């Protein structure tokens, strides 16, 4: 029987768009604007500076070896978002055409959950679209192909997200480390590495037996928010609300900001996620369709959505909010359960 399914991959999206009410369409625009809004922090300038230095080294055309830039911070600190924003915003990382081929100087790869030398090589080949056959290839053959494809596609930088996954396969950690070093030391096509992960990731760098990787790595640490950051967080709440033409309808005093920062585990990325979820609650509140005001109870709902908590463990509702402490999983999600002290 012949396949009669439509060939368009966007037919379902077109159907939703055709049946959506004006109200749903308007909210979709606001939600998209909210999601895309980037909050600039002090780490953005530092990250951009290091990426400029990296590009300058490549541009000199005299560097015989690449080096690594490691961005570390707790899960939820906003590392991946900050790096992707920096890469997306720099013209050097835009696609370019060579004949009929679209190329990019940087490849972004999420490190496999259980990362061995072989699985990392396979992930890189899959990312560039290399057609892996069913024939089993050994590690030497895989990495020969990797080097060949990197040079052929003019990829000079690899961004490895969640690089701490390498540590899960203790038997091959040194092998992966040696492989990364060999990419940077390739005399015919040196590669520069950007890696991000939780602080444990530094064990990958510091555990290098001859300390060559450690010497070839610049480290940026994204730390916790402090009370000195409270004024900045107030400005960020206002800026995000203004992005979707909403205003804040309650006083953002030290008590409120303390609850908000504590609720986000003092993690920059997590707190910004909490703010966006709270403003999204205001967007979907029918009572605010005209006044477009973010109320305190919208933050109650935002935190509830962040961790799926009950009222008795919601930092915006309880008097003993400092005692409400949750954990953050490796993928940056806040747990439902409160940690007992």
Looking at CATH, the homologous superfamily of the largest domain is P-loop containing nucleotide triphosphate hydrolases
- Between the first and last Cα atoms, what is the distance in angstroms? 64 Å
Shape: globular
**How do the SSEs run, as a string of H and E?**
HHHEHEEEHHEHEHHEHEHHEHEE
Beta-strand share of residues: 5-15%
Short descriptors:
about 350 residues; alpha/beta; Rossmann fold; 2 domains; two-stranded antiparallel ribbon; 11 strands
Protein model, in words:
The chain is α/β, with parallel strands linked by helices. It has 2 domains: 42-221, P-loop containing nucleotide triphosphate hydrolases (Rossmann fold), CATH 3.40.50; 225-338. Helix content is 45%, strand content 13%. It has a 5-stranded parallel sheet, sandwiched between helices. A two-stranded antiparallel ribbon has the order 2-3. The protein has a two-stranded parallel ribbon with strand order 8-9. The longest helix is centred in the first third of the chain and has 18 residues, at 42-59. The protein starts with 10 loop residues before the first helix and ends with a strand. The model has no long low-confidence stretch (mean pLDDT 91).
